[in-house]
Amino acid sequence: MAGLIDMIINNPAIAGSIAKQVGIDVGDAGSIIGKLAPILMGSAKKNLQSDRDSGDLLSQIGNNQFSDMLDKPEETMQRGDLTNIGNDILGQLTGSKENSRKVAKHVEQETGMSADIIKKMLPMLAPLIIGALTKKAAPSIDEYQRQPQTQSGGLESIITGMIDQDNDGSMIDDIMGMAMKHIFS
Fold it and tell me: What is the C-alpha separation between 94 and 106, in angstroms, rounded?
């Protein structure tokens, strides 16, 4: 999972592009991204492991549009439809606007930055989370699509396995380890 989150947290173009869009310092944007990325990645895993239909999230992960967004964050932030795309993904990741607000409030408490700024950043960051998953999952998705479909949930298992770095069934220790590595490096 560290590799997935690193694609976002350690990319200065992402922090710079988002900072410019919301009108904050790049360091503050990086701090917020460092808190949001693990939460959103964990939400993706939770969605894929839940009983609810993950088909839309899986189709988004299979969409190269999002990996292209990850590769070109400056262009991505200029897209007129980014907020709509991001809000659609947030709906899948968090389940509701209320849950997205809770995430923003939680990160506000951790960073001291305004929840309003964080709420603006969430739909900008959500497609980049899917882009990181797309990049990491692409070989597995290609292989999955070539295999005969004998059991349901196979692709979900592949992707959640990528998110759970130490394969202990919990991504919390993986997220915290990654966050601590980023904070203290």
Answer: 13
